[in-house]
Amino acid sequence: MEKENKEKTKWTEIREKLNQNYEYDDTWEQAIKLFQERLKDKYFKPIQLIIGVKRNKGEGFSIVTLQCALIEMFSAFRQGKIHIQKNAKNMQNYEYKESTKIFTSLLLEAPIFKDVFWQQQGKKNREINTPYNASDFYKYVRCGLMHEARTKENWCITSAPKGIDEKTEKCFIKTESGQNKIYRTVLHYKLLEYLDNYSDELRQDTPDGKKLRKHFARKLDHLFDFQPNSNYDWWTE
User: Fold this and answer.
1) H-type helices in the chain, by residue range?
2) Which of 123, 146, 168, 179 reaches 20 to 30 Å from 91, CA-CA?
3) Which of 181, 131, 136 is CA-nearest to residue 159?
4) Domain-by-domain residue ranges, the chain?
């Protein structure tokens, strides 16, 4: 709780300097570092500790459950979307109730998922849900783990076979004997790669970079329990 309070205090100081300011500077870098350190302390380092046990006795279920939480979180940050439990009739345009679209959108767009859930077809065209279907991953892996503490259908979790460099391997799903095997440690390093890539995008002084920073600030506000406030224009959208 002490660390959480320190993080909130830090964001409280930072946010006052960022309101109406979307030009990347040292203050935005402080916000990015706060985000990175929080995720590494609360998710990536614990995942690495579980991986380090090397028992292969089922710990992959815990690892991929955490990874699914990260996937939805990354997508929600990117879009500036906030999950709600209340009646959907009164939703703001930055709120969402159903997770399916948020979760699968990252699978179908992020470069780390290229040749897993989408493939490039020429310079401008993409084919989605190939070779693996993002909705199937959501239903049979994410929802299976979150709601029933298991994977479903022909999806399973495993460590990568010997000979595969888990830090550099591009594809974290392989089909063998009719089973879609998720290499949980490969996915760990792919998500670390995404964190680095997303952080770099947040630093870009482009229209897309500014939009990402606006969504980022809104999500940090919500993360640290700041209520929507039209005085901060990242809430006015």
Assistant:
1) 2-18, 26-39, 45-53, 60-79, 100-107, 134-137, 143-148, 184-202, 207-223
2) 146
3) 181
4) 2-235
Residues in the chain: 237
Task: Determine whether 50 is exposed, middle or buried from the number of CB atoms within 10 Å of its CB (0-12, 13-18, 19+).
Answer: middle
For the stretch 126-171, pLDDT in tens is: 999 999 999 999 999 999 999 999 999 999 999 999 889 999 999 9
Write the CA distances from 205 to 22, 79, 194, integer angstroms.
9, 18, 19
Identify the residue whose tokens are 């320190």.
6
Distance, C-alpha 147 to centroid of its chain: 19
> Which amino acid does the sequence have at 224?
F
Q: For 90, which DSSP code?
A: G
The structure tokens listed for 45 are 């380092």
